Amino acid sequence: MDTDKKPANRPPLEGITLEMIVTQLSESIGWEAMAEAVPVRCFTHDPSIKSSLKFLRRTPWARAKVEELYLLIQRAKP
Fold it and tell me: Could you please report the per-residue DSSP string of the chain?
């Protein structure tokens, strides 16, 4: 058996913090696009990294959507 292969079920976000995700999304697509994809107040009204992290850490469904958006953007990059 080949043990050098990475496990197929390895979490795609392993090693990436929520702060890194929010920062990269805000820089690459902007707060408006983030608010369109995940319509939450922390993206639509006076958005900031700090307020977004606070909300997303307490709201699992929103965090999951932001992580999905991040993965989608990463796959779309050349």
Answer: ---SSPPTT--TTTT--HHHHHHHHHHHTHHHHHHHHS--HHHHSS--HHHHHHHHHH-HHHHHHHHHHHHHHHHH--
Residue 31 domain flag: yes
What does the pLDDT read at residue 70?
95
Q: Give the number of domains in the chain.
A: 1
The answer to pTM > 0.90 is no
pLDDT at 45: 94
Residue 1 confidence (pLDDT) above 80? no
The domain of 53 spans 22-76
